[in-house]
UniProtKB/TrEMBL annotation:
This is DUF305 domain-containing protein. PROSITE patterns: PROKAR_LIPOPROTEIN. It comes from the Bacteria. It holds the Pfam family DUF305. InterPro entries: DUF305_CopM-like, Ferritin-like. Transmembrane segments: none annotated. Residues 51-135 form the DUF305 domain.
Length: 143
């Protein structure tokens, strides 16, 4: 089973959020995920996932290559002065990537269920992008 870089990043964040108390299995998963992510995105430049060299890109992989690369590049470049601002900037790029991938599925898939799901993803992610763009930092109370 191949995991996309985003899934691996999510796995890393999920596992790092759980204090496994030094569980060696969780640590191995965190290490493998971090290595895969580092190999995929280096200094804001997206490279091919490690598994792509082993198996070659499939037509399905190639259909999403441009949108995936743009999303990773955008996320790597997005920043903010605070964690909150960086989160919003990076998530906007992440959601833009989801919209671009949904556009590929809508343009190329003939499966009605895939097209339905892609339409739902595009609508939801577009709404969430607007919500994130409208976000402003909460006023901090005076010390």
């Amino acid at each position: 089973m191949r995991l996309a870089p985003i899934a691996l990043t999510t796995l890393t964040l999920t596992l790092s959020a759980c204090d496994g108390g030094g569980d060696p299995v969780q640590q191995a998963l965190r290490d493998a995920s971090a290595e895969n992510h580092a190999a995929t995105v280096q200094e804001g430049v997206v490279s091919a996932p490690a598994h792509a060299a082993d198996h070659g890109a499939t037509p399905g992989d190639e259909a999403f290559a441009a949108s995936e690369a743009a999303m990773h590049t955008g996320m790597a470049r997005a920043s903010g002065a605070t964690v909150d601002e960086a989160y919003i900037a990076k998530m906007i790029e992440h959601h833009r990537g989801a919209v671009a991938m949904a556009d590929v599925a809508l343009a190329q898939s003939r499966d009605p269920e895939i097209r339905r799901m892609a339409g739902l993803v595009k609508d939801a992610q577009t709404r969430e992008i607007a919500e994130m763009r409208a976000w402003r930092p909460a006023a901090r109370p005076a010390p």
